[in-house]
Design brief:
The protein contains three helices and nine strands; from the N terminus they run H-H-H-E-E-E-E-E-E-E-E-E. The chain has 148 residues and is an alpha+beta fold. The strands form two sheets. A six-stranded antiparallel sheet has the order 3-4-8-7-6-5. Strands 2-1-9 form a three-stranded antiparallel sheet, with no helix packed on it.
Length: 148
């Protein structure tokens, strides 16, 4: 189980090695994604709070990266954080997510990205439920649910 200490270590000292890498040109990403998916995943955008299609979906399944289909989160660790975005407590496996320190907008946060394609997902915070205490705050447009 990952903790905030692990997250900070990854953000400062380097991320776990992904199982594979997917690299595409901006034009290829634009052809593959909707304009909103492209804005969020490739340009580090965000959805307005409470507007994402997956905010209140709790169906059983697996959440994958919308860009490369990399498995990111399992539905069993999704929870209502009242943040306005889908929230998860842990990634599906340690090397699914890439972490980078984000000092934009006058605050220090940890950005989370798909470790396979570097698609922006959202941010992780140390205010989630126990036992791990993590809250992965993810844009609906950056993930897709594969229902069981």
């Amino acid at each position: 189980m990952l903790t905030w200490k692990n997250i900070m270590d990854f953000a400062v000292n380097g991320n776990p090695k992904p199982d594979r890498k997917v690299e595409k040109s901006n034009m290829e990403w634009k052809e593959l994604l909707t304009p909103e998916q492209y804005r969020i995943t490739r340009k580090k955008g965000t959805e307005a709070p409470g507007t994402g299609a997956l905010c209140s979906v709790y169906d059983a399944g697996q959440y994958n990266c919308v860009c490369c289909n990399n498995p990111l989160f399992d539905s069993t660790i999704k929870y209502e954080s009242k943040s306005g975005w889908p929230a998860f407590t842990q990634p599906i496996k340690e090397n699914a997510i890439k972490y980078e320190k984000d000092s934009g907008f006058g605050m220090v946060r940890v950005e989370v990205m798909c470790n396979v394609c570097d698609g922006h997902l959202g941010h992780v915070f140390p205010d989630g439920p126990e036992p791990g205490g993590l809250r992965y705050c993810v844009n609906s447009e950056s993930i897709k649910l594969e229902k069981e």
